[in-house]
Design a protein that fits this description.
By secondary structure, the protein is α+β, with helices and mostly antiparallel strands. The protein has three domains: 50 residues; 95 residues, Tyrosine recombinase, N-terminal domain (DNA polymerase, domain 1, Orthogonal Bundle), CATH 1.10.150; 141 residues, hpI Integrase, Chain A. Helices cover 50% and strands 12% of the residues. It is built from 14 helices and eight strands. It is elongated.
Length: 377
């Protein structure tokens, strides 16, 4: 493989042969912007050394094409909602800024500059979103590295913005009692959703996907086996992603009573709609049996919170409330982790670390009482 230097205008540049394409035509790569011939010659020698050592990418594939191919394969391995997110991020953020670059030209500073510009937009992208973008790009570049299209991953040298730790918003037991008391006369389907979220910590999609066949009323257990979401206006029921998400949750007598009461309410709707009822065996559904729309749930949630005169929190914060109150009661984190469907206990401990200081104080006092024999009569 050879190369040579030449002058273009006031600057020097060099070109190297990097092999031949599929048609046997010689492929060349140009490097420019050197002030003197000697600088260009030194750079040429260094590039030839990189090429000989397999440290120089010669791929003509663009970043945009790499991401396009990566997405085509990714759609078979992730949930539709996740694929939709990936596609939107690639189309809106990554492709317009670096999609035109070839893999052989892509450098860490290209990626770093992209993140900097995204943070300077109006409105600016949050650090969490930048990290999601980076995760997608790095995943695609790992494929390019594995396939020998690049000698190293340029995204590894990029510095990411630090994500500020979000303070979880939770309700107290008193606030929960107020919420349930004030809203017990609302539409049964939504009240049942709120009860399930508060008493089980289930995710929104898990509640909306719940079937009557998933509930064992003799053993008072809910079996979580799938989740639900709307994708491009179409209702999608998906099996639980991992064996941790697929789990059993014990329910209290109060939850059981509410579920049975709601089932009677639903049977009345079935009789009213007769043959027009779309029976998917869903625990919570629209009056005609069709899945509940997320926008409708969100609207009912905001209305119920306002009606109770309580601090506004997200619906998902009911899950955090459930977990936090269990930990404050002294329930072992392993049990809490299993109820929530976390893949490991460290996720639970990290997410709910705000609860730990009070738990540590309680443990310290219990140990002190044990040693001082104050707990022995």
């Amino acid at each position: 493989m050879r190369g040579h230097v030449r002058k273009r205008g006031n600057k020097w540049c060099f070109v190297i042969d990097v092999g031949r394409d599929e048609q046997g035509k010689r492929k060349q790569k140009w490097f420019s912007g050197f002030a003197t011939k000697k600088e260009a010659e030194r750079a040429l020698a260094a590039k030839l050394q990189e090429l000989n050592n397999g440290l120089l990418s010669t791929s003509d594939m663009t970043v945009g094409k790499l991401l396009e191919d990566w997405l085509l394969d990714k759609q078979f391995h992730v949930k539709p909602t996740t694929f939709e997110l990936y596609s939107r991020i690639v189309t809106i953020h990554i492709a317009p800024m670096i999609g035109h670059l070839t893999l052989s030209d892509l450098r860490p500073d290209h990626i770093q500059n992209m993140y900097r510009m995204l943070q300077q937009k109006t409105p600016p992208l949050q650090a969490k979103t930048i990290r999601t973008i980076h995760s997608i790009l790095r995943n695609a570049l790992k494929r390019a590295l594995k396939w020998g299209l690049i000698p190293r991953d340029p995204s590894e040298a990029v510095e990411l913005p630090r994500s500020p730790r979000r303070t979880l918003a939770i309700w107290t037991p008193e606030q929960i009692r107020t919420f349930l008391a004030v809203n017990q006369d609302i539409d049964s389907r939504y009240y049942t959703i709120f009860v399930l979220a508060i008493y089980t910590g289930m995710r929104k999609g898990e509640i909306l996907a719940l079937r009557w066949s998933d509930i064992d009323f003799e053993r008072d257990i809910i079996q979580v086996t799938r989740t639900f979401s709307w994708v491009d206006g179409e209702a999608m029921f998906l099996e639980a992603k991992t064996h941790h998400s697929n789990r059993s949750i014990a329910i209290s007598h109060d939850v059981k009573v509410q579920l049975l009461r709601h089932r009677e309410f639903q049977e009345q709707e079935k009789r009213l709609y007769a043959d027009s009822y779309h029976d998917g065996n869903l625990v919570v559904a629209r009056p005609d049996g069709e899945p509940i729309r997320l926008s409708s749930l969100q609207k009912q949630w905001r209305h119920a919170v306002k009606r109770a005169g309580l601090p506004e929190i997200r619906f998902h914060d009911l899950r955090h409330t459930h977990a936090s109150l269990l930990l404050l009661q002294g329930v072992h984190p392993k049990i809490v982790s299993e109820r929530l469907g976390h893949s490991n206990i460290s996720i639970t401990m990290d997410t709910y670390s705000h609860v730990l200081p009070s738990l540590h104080r309680e443990v310290a006092e219990d140990f002190a009482r044990l040693i001082s024999n104050k707990n022995i009569s």
